[in-house]
Amino acid sequence: MSTVIETKGLVKRYGRIAAVDGVDLTVEKGEVFGLLGPNGSGKTTTILLLLGLTEPTAGTVRVLGLDPLRNPLAVKRRVGYMPDQIGFYDNLTGRENLLYTARLLGLSGAEASKRIDEALERVRLVEAGERRVSTYSRGMRQRLGLAEVLIKQAEIAILDEPTSGLDPQSTQELLDLILALSREGMTIVLSSHLLAMVQSVCDRVALFSRGRIGLSGRVEDLTSDVLGGTHVVEVEAQDVDLAQALADAPHITGVTQQRPGLWRVDADEDARPEIARRVVMAGGRLTAMSIRHTTLDEVYVRFFEEDRHHAAAA
Ligand SMILES: Nc1ncnc2c1ncn2[C@@H]1O[C@H](COP(=O)(O)OP(=O)(O)OP(=O)(O)O)[C@@H](O)[C@H]1O
Predict the structure, then answer these.
(1) Separation of CA 111 and ligand 1 centre (Å)
(2) Could you give the ipTM of this predicted complex?
(3) What angle is formed at CA 48 by the lines to CA 97 and CA 58, rounded to 5 degrees?
(4) 105 CA distance to ligand 1 centroid (A)?
(5) pLDDT tens across 73-124, in order?
(6) Rounded Cα–Cα distance for residues 25 and 11 (Å)
(7) Whose CA is closest to atom 1 on ligand 1?
(8) Which end of the chain is more exposed for a tag (fewer CB within 10 A), N or C?
């Protein structure tokens, strides 16, 4: 693996506000890396610093081994950027917009047409490509944004809130497209405040809070480190003390009673068969059981709540 993005002690202050407050970030080639956190936590500012679009107050940034402030053109050539609000010429068609980008890249007519055809096909805008962008939905604009990244043959794509404002189906389509690009070797950095929605596509994530990265790592590792398990089983049962019945059960990392007859069981694998067996063995009556994966939203809430408690106690 080789490191393609590295920041050390990155700080960006706007007057008294530290938008980014000491960020150390490493992204490896071919990863899908998520910058996740609520509005205002410093994700966009971090992205602007990676692209050399704003100057750090302190710290260093290297993108593909280059300092984006000193080599802005070299970085721009090799890194595709899709901002939160993508600017297209609304009166031009999708294809004409891409042609404009291709000209800026200095591509010859034949090469530009070839790349545009391939990109439109890839993002499923072949027919819509002939229509004015003013008629596009938000999802189509986002896909046209990705087409632009494709035309550039970027080594890294940096996508700011790519799924915001999209309906569930368009979100899934865009995430599938991002995964496909990653499988072909493109490194992807994306930001989002919708933690659960993007956790499925990210190899690693960094959770931002107030300009800092509180936690980072693989999603499964974060959920098991912070929550003690990767699965949550909700159990409804009568005539049983579930905490006692599961006391020494394997793979169970926590049992919390939510109300009489209803428990949340944290586990590091699908523990439903063992739970069912133990309820019955203890003479109880199982009335319902459901399972889901733990989400990054839960990790976020738990971690930053503890963080706040520690800060308050200090
Ligand atoms: N140009 C600026 N001038 C002053 N303050 C700014 C500027 N840009 C960002 N900030 C502040 O820095 C903090 C971090 O903002 P940033 O846009 O990086 O957060 P974000 O996590 O990307 O949020 P969002 O999802 O809303 O874009 C916020 O408090 C914001 O108000």
Answers:
(1) 39
(2) 0.93
(3) 160
(4) 30
(5) 899 889 999 998 888 999 999 999 999 999 999 999 899 999 999 999 999 9
(6) 12
(7) 14
(8) C
- pTM recorded for the entire structure: 0.86
Nearest atom within ligand 1 for CA of residue 42: 18
Q: How far apart are CA 302 and CA 229, in angstroms?
A: 13
Asked whether 233 and 258 are in contact (CB, 8 A), the reply is no
Residue 117 is inside which H or E element, if any?
helix 109-122
CA 300–ligand 1 middle distance (angstroms): 19
User: Residue type for 143, please?
Assistant: R
Q: Which residue's CA is the closest to the ligand 1 atom numbered 26?
A: 39
Q: Which two tokens stand for residue 72?
A: 């802005």
Amino acid at 24: D
Q: Please name the helix (run of DSSP H) or strand (run of DSSP E) that holds residue 7, with its range, or none.
A: strand 3-14
Closest CA to 130 of 99, 96, 103, 102: 96
- Is the shortest distance between the CB of 17 and ligand 1 below 6 Å? yes
- From CA 31, how far away is CA 183, in angstroms rounded? 9
48 alpha carbon to ligand 1 midpoint, in Å?
11
